[in-house]
Design a protein that fits this description.
By secondary structure, the chain is an alpha/beta fold. The chain is built from five helices and six strands; from the N terminus they run E-E-H-E-E-H-E-H-E-H-H.
Length: 159
């Protein structure tokens, strides 16, 4: 018997969004740490939410917050799993702003250092509407959106 206050176990099924009916996802998001923003990015930009798992055959974007802890987690992940011969395909690092405004100089320097451990990187600015679940759509980070919809999605075939 479970208490009404017991947490509901998380489903092992991966969350996907931003997909058309009958289309398979073309990329996945993997958190370098919990709370990185994987679920939000999957819901806003499509793809598969892997949580912190690397169990997929899809090309994967690693996600971290721009806090010191988030950046260090991304650095550890790169050192532990991407050095040598990785067992999964990493497209790069997505650094999600942990608050509005510019990063403090020490964090900006750490972010640049950590990004060097990845083949590419994309900063995602603070998007207030994503935090408040506003019905007004927030901006889509253009450089990352271009990657997701050009190099990962197949070119549309003309009928």
């Amino acid at each position: 018997m479970t208490s009404p206050l017991s947490p509901t176990p998380r489903s092992p099924m991966r969350r996907t969004s931003g997909l058309s009916l009958g289309r398979s996802p073309r990329w996945a998001w993997r958190g370098a740490h919990s709370g990185a923003g994987v679920t939000t990015l999957a819901s806003k930009l499509g793809g598969v939410d892997l949580g912190m798992s690397s169990e997929t055959s899809l090309p994967t974007l690693v996600v971290c917050r721009s806090s010191a802890d988030g950046l260090i987690a991304a650095q550890r992940l790169a050192a532990d799993e991407l050095a040598g011969t990785p067992t999964w395909t990493c497209l790069g690092l997505v650094v999600v702003a942990d608050g509005p405004g510019l990063l403090a100089k020490p964090l900006a320097e750490l972010a640049a250092l950590v990004a060097g451990g990845y083949t590419d990187h994309w900063p995602i600015p603070w998007v207030n509407s994503w935090r408040t679940h506003s019905t007004t759509p927030g901006p889509r980070p253009s450089r990352l959106a271009r990657l997701l919809h050009s190099s990962i999605h197949p070119i549309k075939e003309h009928l």
